[in-house]
Every structure is written in C-alpha cells, then in structure tokens.
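Protocol step 4 of 6: structure prediction from sequence.
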Amino acid sequence: MRYAADAHGGDLCAKYDFSINVSPLGMSRAVRRACTRALAAAARYPDPHCTRLRRALAEKEGGLPENILAGNGAAELIYAYAAAHAGGHALILSPTFSEYERAMCAFGGSAEHVFGYAEAEEKCTQADVVFVCVPNNPDGGMPGRAELFSLAAACAQAGTELFVDACFFDFVSDPPFALRELAAMRGVLVLQAFTKSCALAGVRLGYILGEHRVLEALAKTQQPWNVSAVAQAAGIAAAGDSPYFERLRRTVCRERAYLDRGLRRAGFSPRPSAANFLLFEGPADLAARLRRAGIAVRVCTDFVGLLPQAGRLYYRIGVRTHAENRAFLRRLREEGRCEQNRS
C-alpha cells in the first residue's frame, strides 16, 4: 500500500539522502536533552492545551499564546484546517506542496491552481481560501513584502482567508517581514513547524499563528492529546534556542551557495532559493543513476506546473552537511563525464 507521505521524499536506504529538506545540523543538544527528560513523564497524558509550549512559541514569534494553535506536525494542521472548511474552494499558488489540495479534496472541497501572485490576487474573490508557501517548496522562492501583503489585503477585502505556509521561514537569512505582522492581518493564518528547521521530522510538531476565534474553530477538528509530551518538551527547548537558529541560517546560506556553484559548474541551472533546498532540471534518468551510487534526490513529478522538456525532469535537493554536499557534487561530476562519453 502506498501512502500520501511516500511522495514527499525520505529514503532510509540511501547513504546520502538529499530527497529530504531537514536541518543539516540535526537535533540540537538542548532539544535532545529535553526529549530525554520528557520520557520520564511519558506514562502520563500530555497537556491537551500545550500551555507551556504555546507560551514559549509566543516568545519566539512575538505574539500571544492565545493566538497560537499547536499540532502534530504541519500536515495535521493543514488537514485540520481543511476539515474546518469542508466543501470549500481553494486557490493554490503553484507549483507547491501537494497536501493543500489533497487535504481540501479529502473533506469534499476543491482546488484551483494559479501561477503568480498577481493571478492569485485577481482570482481571490472566487475562493474561500488562498494557499501560499513562503519560501516556496520546491523552488525556495521568496516573495517580497509588497507582493505578499498586497495579496493579504486583497483577500481580506474579498472575505477570503489567506493560509501562509511558512514552514521554511526559519531558514531565511534576511526575511522581508516578520510572521507576526502577517498573522496580525485580518483573515490570515500562518503555519510554522519545527519539523524541518529543528530536525524534528520524527517527533512531529507544528503550529499556526492567527486570530484566537479562528484557531478555536480549528481546534475542534483535532484529536485530543495530539501533541505528545516529548514533542511539547522539544518545542519548548527549540523555541528558546536562538543560537541554534543563527547557526542554522549561516550554515544553510554557506552550503546552499556551495551547492549552487557546483551545480552550475556541472551544467545545471538551479533556481534562486531562500530555503534549505535547490530546484534544478536534469536528465530523466539522473535520479536512478544517482540512486545506484547511494544518493537519493527528490523527483518533482507530482508538483503541478513543473513542466520540463521531453526527456528531462525537475529535481529538488536538500542542503546537507559540507561533507555530504561535496560527495554529491563529486558524484554529479562523474555522472556528467559518463554522459559526455556516451554522447
């Protein structure tokens, strides 16, 4: 049986897994210690209201605890939103994460793809919600402040909600706006998660910033005790670990530039990215050839709007450690030489 999550990357058998876009620093010591300590209380039910966690997240984001809803990863919150808006119609700024459409359709809704902020702003009157991802997955594109806030204002005027997926925002070195500014706007919900930035993909922790009244309605669609004691402890520790986030942004900025240069020298043209991954176009058999060398990359055939030429596909690679990135580029150069010899 194939599950939806199977399409989103992650190869446990690969020696070098570039198909995922999780922090190359791994889990911080502070978070690891917090998880270990939390196991002592694992026999008890976790706080169903995530009181301490929401307080810590509010300090990190500069908001109020009552304007935060925690969840079992970003995906659970996307589906909770879709459940609370069953039968609704969504505009999705594409190409982007496939779970927005999947979630809306799972609860009797529908989705339409648009391909630019101008088009989204023009058509927002025709939808119940507009989904955007900043920085965007899979290309890492980051909108300007005016572009995003103009869409938010247009949605507010139309009575349409704007759902901003900011799960990769903590990787951005110089963001043009703060998430609390977006979340303070009427009809805007901002999704965040520690899944990627703090390497908690196996722990599962996400949260939404928004108006308290709207979040209360979403909470009614969630299961009780949905955020484990371990996840809550991890989130509290991660939220206060500002040195980790500073080191993360420096590392990703440096290694992303290294990968970008290496890809261009190998004849590829990666898209400009503000996130911890790069998107590029290559031969249709590239993933299979790299896989034989123990390297997994994300094949982007399931992203609506990514239409490569015949015999070519789009690939996304996560920014990993320098040693891993060096090994990837070395193998890519070898594959390039093999390709030249065959031709």
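Step 5 (inspection) to follow. The chain has two domains: 13-25+243-342, 29-240.
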